[in-house]
Every structure is written in C-alpha cells, then in structure tokens.
Known about the structure:
Order of helices and strands: EHHEEEEEEH
CATH superfamily: START domain
Shape: globular
Distance between the termini: 22 Å
CATH class: Alpha Beta
Number of helices: 3
Radius of gyration: 16 Å
Amino acid sequence: MSSPEAGAALPQMQFQQGTEIVQEIVIEAAAAQVWHALTRDIFSWWSHSFSDKPYLIALEAQVGGRFYELFDAEGNGALYGTVTFCKPGEKLAFSGQMGMQGPVINHCTFTLAEAEGVTRLRISQVILGMVAPEMVQGYTQGWAALLGQLRDFVSSGRKVRED
C-alpha cells in the first residue's frame, strides 16, 4: 500500500468496474475483543504503512472518524479513509484512497458475527476506477496478511511493532 517514488513510471491502469475483494477469517474470541483490536489497537497489528516507521496508525470508530497514519508527532501523514458506518461490535465501513493513485472510489466494510465465543470477521473491499491489475492482487494479498496479523494479535498479543 505504498505510493510510487517521485518520477517513477506509473503502472498501466485499467478501469475496474466494481472489483470486489472479499476475505473472511475466524478468530477464537468474542466480537467485542475483536472489535477492540480492530479499532483501538490497530497500530499493534496493522503492518502496511507509507513510512518505514509510522508514528501512529489509528482508526476512529465513529461516523466521520479517520483511518490514518501519522509519520511524526507534528501531524504529517496520510488519510487512508473516512468512516461512513459504525455499529460497534458488528460493522464498520470506510471510504478512501488507501494509497491508490488517480481517480478511484474505494469502499471497505468490516463485518463481525459472533457465535459461541468465536467471531467471523469479513472484509469486503469494492474498488471502482483506474486501477492497475497488480494493485488488486496486492490488496488481495495484503488483506490476507493483515487478517492473519489481527488473528495473531487477538489470540496471542503478538504485535508487528514495538510501542
């Protein structure tokens, strides 16, 4: 989810008509615990960033809240998206570029469903616009890695970076 270096050639873009990436993971924990990790502890397990050593990655779980990365304490950073729907413990949706270049509409929805102390987390990402095919593949692989890191964090406390 990084942006190209200045002066670098952009990959060949193709218009994507409603490409959807869907992935699910089962986490052996209550939905409230998964929600807390997804929203309040995201910096502990979210490994994709614009900077090598992000100062903060945060997801403000409220309508209009930001999903963003800070590069430093001065507030320099990147906005991944803006929260468009929030029902704690059940569903969170946001829209934003998430590092994509050019004219793109990107919308992601996390849905949580708990049964008998186990939570099924589903991510749906819909992309519309000028997107390189390699980017869609990169997001597919990226979500798989991130969901695994979330599961590892919830089950064992394993962090991807030191606080």
